[in-house]
Amino acid sequence: MRASRRAGLVAAVTTLLPCLLTPLAAAEPEPAAAQGSPVERTSGFYVDPDSTAAAWVAANPDDSKAAAIDTGIARRPSARWFGNWSGTISTAVSAYVGAADAADKLPVLVAYNIPGRDACGGHSGGGAGTPQAYRTWIRSFAAAIGDRPALVVVEPDSLGDYSCLTQKQIDERNAMLRYALDRFAASAPRTWTYLDAGNPGWLDPVTIAGHLNGAGATRAHGFSLNVSNYFSTSENTKYGDSVNAALSAYGYTKPYVVDTSRNGNGSDGEWCNPPGRRTGTPSRTGGRAEMLLWVKLPGESDGDCGVGTGSTAGQFLPKVAYDMVDGN
């Protein structure tokens, strides 16, 4: 336990003493705003010991690519994605967040299970079968985090995909996203949520700001950019600032984070396993954004396309991973 946590316990006991001495005093939950930053409550970002890169290195220690992948990817903090492949979601999330909390590190999680997932791209299609099934799933997800610190990127692609949905589907999706953000606020008060806002090459800032607002961005801590894409950090921060300028028309702005996992060489205009890409700045706070994060693990395929032809979305490709680190 860090000193800041011990100090917080001492302060809490001191604050509660007058209430304990007053008969029939009712204890009230601590307001979410008073819970403190999850960044300040932890000592750095969590490294997933069971990432696909770490698993490949453990299984192939004598491979010529193993050392570079281990140092350049497997040992760096990155997000864990959760969806309909995760089994019992409460068990999976609680175990992951619990391991990070025991290490006093901040975990980054991705909720990726909305019905009609990846409606435009198609490579990662699926998700919960119905809106009600999604509500049950996301409610369990949030409750499993509880009062432990975490960051959650909420449903990548979900707002950028509106051109591939009917108005009824858009309305249903907005309702699900608002519900998700409300559940995290209520059940995971030390979690910062980021509603995904696509990337600079997808939608113009005014359009995505409207989508964010319709999906309840006021309920989120912020928004995320460049998830699973390749645009440079400078392009993303310029875009994020423009999105905030557009959001100001609704009376608010939000902090944003940028996925830098694969943007070290910028984008060539392709989003699905383009060749010649490089890993970017490792996870850190700041960088003109609130944080730079590795959300998509380098080396995991975008789908059956580009240098990942023949693979499935999420499959770890050691040659692709090695090239991203080594620069071949």
Automatic annotation (TrEMBL):
Protein name listed in UniProt = Glucanase
Xref: InterPro entries: Beta_cellobiohydrolase, Beta_cellobiohydrolase_sf, Glyco_hydro_6_CS
Kindly indicate where the leader peptide sits in this chain.
1-27
- Sequence similarity: Belongs to the glycosyl hydrolase family 6.
Q: Does the keyword Disulfide bond apply?
A: yes
Keywords assigned = Carbohydrate metabolism, Cellulose degradation, Disulfide bond, Glycosidase, Hydrolase, Polysaccharide degradation, Signal
Keyword presence, Protein biosynthesis: no
| Any one GO molecular function term | hydrolase activity
Compositional bias (Low complexity) at which positions?
274-285
Note down the stretches annotated as region Disordered. Answer: 263-285
Record Pfam families: Glyco_hydro_6
> Which residues are annotated as active site?
D157
Its EC number is 3.2.1.-
